[in-house]
Amino acid sequence: MKKIFLSLLILVVTNVAFGQSVFDKFEDQEKIRTVIVNKKMFSLLSKMKVEDKETQQYVNLIKKLENLKVFATQSDSKAEEMKATAEKYLKTAGMEELMRITDKGKSVKIYVKSGATDSQIKELLMFVDGSGTEETVLMSLTGNFDLDELSVLTEKMKLPGGEDLKKASKGSKGPKGGK
Amino acid sequence: MKITIFTAVLFSLLLLSCSNEPSIQKYFVENSGKKDFIALDISPSIINIDKSKLTPEQQTALNSFEKMNVLIFKSNGKNETQYQSETQKVGDILKDETYQELMKIGSGKDGASVSFVGDENDIDEFIFFAKNQDNGFAVVRILGNDMNPNNIMNMIGILQIANVDMEQLKPLQGLLK
């Protein structure tokens, strides 16, 4: 009996844990707005023919992106849950704090995982703590991109927390210009 | 202990390989005649346009498009449980590997997702799934041959200049009543 229980448990655990990100549990929850864009979407978009230079810049960045997840909530309990998950994740993911902004009771923290060079980023995590007055936003972006290029994205996409991300992109001290 | 782990692994492999999941197509067939569902087939003839006026790119785009199937479930305040179970069903079907999710937005109460079947450069099918607790949900299948991002952009261009044959959209009027 015990054996059967154990094997069932292992079965459930392995199947659930397979290929799941820690943040996936926030999907389809009430009171949480989600935006998820997968790698396939980015690669489809990057195949489009574009003529003007600005859009070309945008497409160049998109090619380097893999996954975008944004979760936003107004609910206090959900915000707490998001904060706890983010903190737990940061402890294990080996990410560095890029910047921290506190503005009118809301705090924004941005963490990155660097790639080959300092300005090359493999993963970016942003947490906006609304502290009950504003929206709490958790954003995770993976790929292999340059921090400077992100400003193109924040200008084109209207995402929650986009304004805060813009500050990070402008404030970066990484080498400018180069790809 | 070893045997336990072995059985567990075997079981999970078995579950994975036996996942003969119902497809979206089956779901359409099963539900199109049911109460509270509206099914709709749209053929390319909905686009009334003089083909000679199209650019070669637009023509390939038009040819890549075969048909569109729409299935709508209408909420009426009494079928809440059915709404829950049906959206769950569609959601589960779309989780299958065949359907590659492109993007998804939602807020728990309502949501929308876009998936596709096939290869990036040769898309066989697009599936849109949108739901709203108060209104119901809709699944749209766009079937085609060799659809790609450029063809889709051209298609949107065609729709802007074409006369859309409203006759084919008539069943939708039932939604507004």
Automatic annotation (TrEMBL), chain A:
Residues 1-19 form the signal peptide. The keyword Signal applies. Keywords: Signal. The keyword Signal applies. InterPro entries: DUF4252. This is DUF4252 domain-containing protein. It comes from Flavobacterium cheonhonense.
UniProtKB/TrEMBL annotation, chain B:
It comes from Flavobacterium cheonhonense. It holds the Pfam family DUF4252. InterPro entries: DUF4252. This is DUF4252 domain-containing protein.
